[in-house]
Amino acid sequence: MSGKKASPLLPSHNAGGSPRGSPVSSPGVYSPHGSEPMRRTGSGGSRSDKGQEDYFGGASGNGNDVEKHHGLYENVKQQVEISPNLPEQKTNKKTMSPAFIIPIWIALSSAVILYNKYLYSNLNYPYPIFITSYHLGCAALGTRILRATTKLMDGLDKIEMTRELYLKSILPIGVLFSGSLILSNTAYLTLSVSFIQMLKAFTPVAILLISAIFKLQVLTSRLVMIVLLISTGCALAAYGELHFEMFGFLCQVSAVAFESSRLVMIQILLQGLKMDPLCSLHYYAPVCAIINACFLPFTEGLAPFQEYMRIGPLIMISNAAVAFGLNVAAVFLIGAAGGLVLTLAGVFKDILLISSSVIFFGSPITSIQIFGYSLALGGMVAYKTASK
After folding, report:
1. pLDDT digit string (tens) for 244-270?
2. Whole-structure pTM value
3. What are the residue boundaries of the Sugar phosphate transporter domain, all occurrences included (predicted)?
4. Hey, which of 61, 260, 331, 365 has its CA 20 to 30 A from 81?
């Protein structure tokens, strides 16, 4: 028996640096080269990838030897811990299935609209500015609670928010957001849910036209045809409305203009600054809540506060919770589905809302409206496909 001290199987474990060519005599571990000396390449005790192949016989001999040694290497690798000090890194990040989150988003989005309509009409609580301010105030509080207790708001760590950026970008976008919410909620006082959803189909057209004004979008012949298709569909939907109210119509059209301007301004002012809906809400909600609250004394006064207890805290808190849950669901939806899937989900949601409006609120729908809305929906899908 040799008096030499046997070197370990792996060169990376050779702390003392045994002489090159020391035979392997580790018991219980199969050596691919038998009694042949190990070969290492490189300097200073390190080995390259080629050296590793030579070490296990992967780059030497003919084709059969390569196959044989590869099998032996796999056998040795199962018995020896190659990197015991390095933790295993998991690279596969699980995302929520679209089949799971899309129905949740559709349900919450529909619930917010129907819940608000129920408050305004059935419970006789016609205070859209207060409801909007209340929702935004709860959203501002909710995002800060999530920031302290969960990882849903970790996107804020990647945003460098300065005073200049806040005043030049967040504030004007917040004003547009506030105007959109106030006008949209006011429209529900006089218009049916079904008619409002039909008018919202004009939003892609407004975005396209505003983008063209700011030279962010080039109007092609195909896009012009899509604009005409959606516009014709919305016009037919408005023409077929049995209980047309000019005030509500102007409020909803203005809401579409405000919302479209907000989306375009986000593209212009926040170029390269990616924010998911929750992070956006974290910045916009306080601004919008304060702006809306400034209108309260001149529009609705103290009446919303006096009627609050009649409605009951349970209904009011649950109403705000559903609205906030929609924003949380939107974060997972964006990560789980593509743009076209979102558009199709939105189309399905609108159809569901129109059907629910007919069933629960007795909103009448004419055949002209159905035809016009079908044209507008077809134009929406075509627009999303063309913009890809």
Report:
1. 889 999 999 999 999 889 888 887 877
2. 0.65
3. 100-383
4. 61
